[in-house]
Amino acid sequence: MIKTWSTPVQDENRNEEPCALCGGRDFSAYLRCEGFQYVRCRQCSLVQMNPQPDAEAVKRRYSGDDYLEYELANEEAFLELGLLTLADAGFYQFEGGLDPAERRVLDAGCATGALLARLRARGWQAEGVELNERQADYARRVRGLRVYGQALEDIPLESCSYTLILASHLIEHLRRPRSFLAEARRLLAPGGRLFLTTPNIDGFQPRLFAGRWRSAIFDHLYLFSAKTLTRLLEQEGFHIEKTVTWGGLAAGIAPRPVKFMFDKLAKLFGFGDVMLISCSLPAGGRVCKPPLSDPTAEPELRFGDATA
Ligand SMILES: [Zn+2]
């Protein structure tokens, strides 16, 4: 089957990493791919690439032009998916309950900013984060958006700056998913929402295709299940509002009516290979901390950061 586009496998510095969910170091082999492998934590069942590329190597992966070309070639399809995601996540009801001044969104991994531009047109104050400089530059130049070019944890933003944070197909690329969620929590106002989309390792397709699954790619450092991601989110103070999965069968491996039925069933029963988790922060009882004066200071415990 055709895999999602990824940086080609290359030689780079790699290290054994502890489990990003429980800190354990007892793993069993899980998926073998060309040139890399995923392991499963025996304690909490999180699936992660191990060994993992170091921070410099990951940064280098997103420094080229390839991602801009891939994004522009698929921009319309990705925008459609982004809008469907919003609808499934309960965005419109959430938006309806906000005052206009409260409509402040941050799209982490905003690519060329197509979805942000749509949200801005609906009256949202729309900002993005994009590490790929070519895409960030495109979003600024062509769409006039404010786009930060650093990792979320490195941007000196004020606490409670946003009511909505989007992260579509982002968290599986990050070396420190917990740090990202902790920072997202800090940046969200009380009652704010976080919509996360990521591949689902418990779906039907990964069970069928194993290492040939479309999302078992070099750029994906973590392959979450609803269970492992829910646990990580809850540990970081989020409340799960809704979990939806999509994608029963890959295009081209079954006749269209079969695929159509299968996709419907996958969504109904939760075995799709992509999942959306919509989560929220409690509405009250939280004091917004002042912004970090030193953006390199670490406000939270971060697992295995000795090599970062
Ligand atoms: Zn674990």
Report what the structure shows.
- The protein is of the alpha/beta class and 308 residues long.
- The protein has one domain (14-285): 3-Layer(aba) Sandwich (Rossmann fold).
- It contains ten helices and 13 strands.
- The chain has helices spanning 55-61, 66-73, 75-89, 91-96, 114-121, 133-143, 177-187, 204-209, 226-235, 256-269, and strands at residues 14-15, 27-33, 36-41, 47-49, 52-53, 104-108, 125-129, 146-148, 162-168, 188-199, 222-223, 239-246, 274-280.
- The strands form three sheets. A seven-stranded mixed sheet has the order 8-7-6-9-10-13-12, with helices on both faces.
- Strand 6 (104-108), helix 5 (114-121) and strand 7 form a beta-alpha-beta unit.
- Mean pLDDT is 88; it is low at 291-308.
Spatial shape: globular
| Overall pLDDT | 88
Domain count: 1
Structural class of the secondary elements? alpha/beta
Question: What ligands are attached or bound here?
Answer: zinc ion
Radius of gyration: 19 Å
Q: Approximately how much helix is present in the residues?
A: 25-40%
Determine the CATH superfamily: Vaccinia Virus protein VP39
The strand count comes to 13
Task: Report how far the terminal alpha carbons are from each other.
Answer: 35 Å
Q: Tally the helices.
A: 10
H/E topology pattern: EEEEEHHHHEHEHEEHEHEHEHE
Strand content: 15-25%
Strand order of the largest sheet: 8-7-6-9-10-13-12
Query: Describe the biggest sheet?
Result: 7 strands, mixed
Q: How is the CATH topology named?
A: Rossmann fold
Contiguous runs where pLDDT drops below 50 for at least 5 residues: 291-308
CATH architecture level-2 label: 3-Layer(aba) Sandwich
CATH class: Alpha Beta
